[in-house]
Write a structure and sequence with these properties.
This protein is mostly helical and 270 residues long. The protein is 61% helix and 5% strand. The chain has nine helices and four strands, in the order βαβαβαααααααβ. It has a four-stranded parallel β-sheet with strand order 3-2-1-4. The C terminus is likely disordered.
C-alpha cells in the first residue's frame, strides 16, 4: 500500500492514484478533492493517532460481535433442546425480552473499553470464519452449563415451572455478564483492566439480575423468590462456567493464527 502527500495541482494525479492520498487544508482545491485525508494542522502524528483509534474501535467492535453471537447461539440451542423435554416453557416470551434488554446494557459500554496492546500492534481485518468458530465454541460451552443448570433444578431441587424460569433467567443473565469480562481480552481476564464504565454497568446489571425476584415488577414477569440453596447452586455453576470459559479461551486463541496478510501492509508517505 502506498501513500502520497501533496498540496499542489501537479500532485492531484498522484494523490488520486495512491492508496491513501494525504493533503492539507491550505492545498489547492483539486488536491483536496483528490485526497483521501486532509490534515487541518501541520502534524503527521494525527495519522498515527487515527490508526490507533481505528484499531481500538475495530477491536471493540469484534468484542461485541463475538460476545453477542456466541451468547445468542448458546441460548438458542439451550432453549430449543430444553423445550423438547420440559412440560413447560424454559422461559416466557416477556422473560426472554427482559433478559435480552438487561444483558445488552453493559454492551453499550464496550465502545469505551480498554484494548490490549497486542490487539492494536498490527492491523486486523474482518474474518467471518473467526466469528463463526468463536460463536460455535463459546456458544456450546454456554449451552453445556445451561444443561447443568437444568439438571440441578429438575433432579436436585425439583423446581416448579416458575422457580425453574426464575432460576434460569438469573443464571443465563449473570453468565452473559460474566463472559463479557472473560472474552474481552486474550489474556487472563484478571491481567487486563476493563474500562470503568463497563465495570460499573456490568456490576449494576448483575445486582438487578440477582434482585429481580424481589423487585416490584417480578410478579408481572412471572418470577418468584428463590430459596438460598438454589441461589448458592446457581453461583457455583456460574463460577465453574467462568473457569471453563477461561480455559476454553486460552485453548481457542492458542490455536488461532491471525495472519498479517494484506492487513499488515505498509503505508509510505512520500
Amino acid at each position: 500500500m502506498a501513500g502520497y502527500l501533496g498540496d499542489g495541482i501537479n500532485d492531484a494525479p498522484a494523490l488520486h492514484a495512491a492508496d491513501v492520498g494525504v493533503s492539507v487544508n491550505s492545498a489547492v482545491d483539486v488536491a483536496r478533492e483528490a485526497a483521501d485525508i486532509i490534515l487541518l494542522e501541520r502534524d503527521l502524528g494525527v495519522l498515527g493517532r487515527g490508526v490507533d483509534d481505528g484499531r481500538k474501535t475495530f477491536a471493540n467492535t469484534m468484542k461485541y460481535i463475538s460476545i453477542t453471537t456466541s451468547a445468542n447461539f448458546g441460548n438458542m440451542v439451550s432453549m430449543a433442546l430444553a423445550s423438547l423435554f420440559l412440560p413447560f416453557l424454559p422461559l416466557l416470551a416477556k422473560q426472554i425480552l427482559l433478559n435480552n434488554f438487561l444483558s445488552d446494557l453493559p454492551s453499550l459500554a464496550i465502545s469505551t473499553d480498554n484494548v490490549d496492546e497486542d490487539q492494536t500492534r498490527t492491523p486486523r481485518h474482518w474474518d467471518i470464519a473467526f466469528v463463526r468458530r468463536f460463536m460455535l465454541t463459546f456458544g456450546l460451552v454456554s449451552s453445556f452449563f445451561d444443561f447443568m443448570t437444568f439438571g440441578f433444578l429438575i433432579f436436585v431441587t425439583h423446581a416448579t415451572a416458575q422457580t425453574f424460569q426464575t432460576a434460569w433467567f438469573i443464571e443465563s443473565l449473570i453468565t452473559e455478564l460474566a463472559i463479557v469480562l472473560v472474552v474481552r481480552t486474550r489474556k487472563a481476564f484478571w491481567q487486563s483492566r476493563p474500562s470503568a464504565l463497563l465495570v460499573w454497568m456490568t456490576a449494576g446489571t448483575f445486582l438487578v439480575a440477582v434482585a429481580t425476584p424481589t423487585l416490584p415488577y417480578a410478579a408481572w414477569f412471572g418470577f418468584v423468590p428463590l430459596p438460598l440453596p438454589i441461589m448458592a447452586g446457581l453461583f457455583a455453576i456460574t463460577i465453574m462456567y467462568l473457569i471453563a470459559s477461561e480455559a476454553t479461551k486460552h485453548w481457542f486463541f492458542s490455536g488461532t493464527h491471525v495472519s498479517p496478510t494484506r492487513d499488515a501492509a505498509r503505508v509510505h508517505i512520500i
